[in-house]
Design goal:
Layout: E1 4-9, H1 27-46, E2 52-57, H2 65-69, E3 74-77, H3 83-96, E4 102-105, H4 114-123, E5 129-133, E6 139-144, H5 149-153, H6 162-172, E7 177-179, H7 189-200, H8 213-221
Parallel strand pairs: 1-2, 1-4, 2-3, 5-7
Antiparallel strand pairs: 4-6, 5-6
Helix pairs in contact: 1-8
Length: 224
């Protein structure tokens, strides 16, 4: 077992999920789209071999939503007030519970190549931290082999400077960082359009025919 692979997730709910896509999407459409993202993200995780897979959800799973969604994965609940606190807690907990390395991904990148996630574990052989940069200045993945709370708690999240600030702090702390190839998450209409354009190329690429299958089907029938 190479370590723990975690995904940050929340239960889709109209009016509370992917609200930056509304309008033009309705609340119900945005929630359904995010549910497709979740299914596809879990498929990405299943392609990464020899890891413990964990879904870390934002609220309690009282109605069993996540147990039904991912019966083959462990479940855990996010703790902390800020995103940085929650990320630090889940990575630190995974490492404290026996993982020799822990990698967390978001649930907003349904076409993320599984090879990038797999490579994150390999890069931790030599680096202290691995990060998958996003085009928007954030990151889609962060992994560690020992806790580095300040890299998560002392950086203001959800800004275009998340990656830059994290790298600057890592340099100050003398923490080595390995960067994966850039990718993107889907939070805005422009990013949704980019996703639609990317998925349209899958028809010409047999290697991608099974990639993002849930999102692909939903976008094909969605009018907006």
């Amino acid at each position: 077992m190479r370590g723990s692979l975690l995904v940050v997730a929340k239960q889709p709910a109209a009016g509370h999920t992917k609200t930056r896509l509304c309008p033009p999407l309705s609340g119900e459409m945005a929630a359904s789209l995010y549910e497709c993202f979740l299914y596809d993200t879990l498929d990405i995780m299943r392609r990464v071999q020899d890891v413990q897979r964990i879904v870390v959800h934002l609220h309690g799973d009282k109605d069993g939503y996540f147990r039904q969604l991912a019966p083959d994965m462990m479940l855990s609940q996010q703790r902390g007030h800020s995103l940085g606190e929650r990320l630090d807690h889940l990575l630190t907990s995974a490492l404290a519970n026996g993982a020799d390395r822990a990698v967390v991904i978001n649930s907003d990148s349904p076409t993320l190549p599984a090879a990038y996630v797999d490579d994150a574990f390999t890069r931790l052989d030599v680096a202290d931290v691995v990060i998958g940069p996003c085009f928007d200045g954030g990151y889609y993945l962060i992994g560690m082999k020992q806790p580095h709370p300040r890299l998560l708690r002392d950086v203001q999240m959800s800004t275009p400077r998340v990656l830059a600030d994290t790298l600057a702090l890592a340099a100050e702390l003398e923490v080595s960082v390995s960067l994966l190839p850039e990718w993107y998450d889907v939070d805005t209409i422009a990013e949704l359009e980019y996703l639609r354009s990317e998925i349209e190329t899958f028809d010409d690429d047999n290697r991608a025919k099974d990639q993002a299958s849930h999102t692909r089907r939903y976008l094909a029938q969605m009018a907006w």
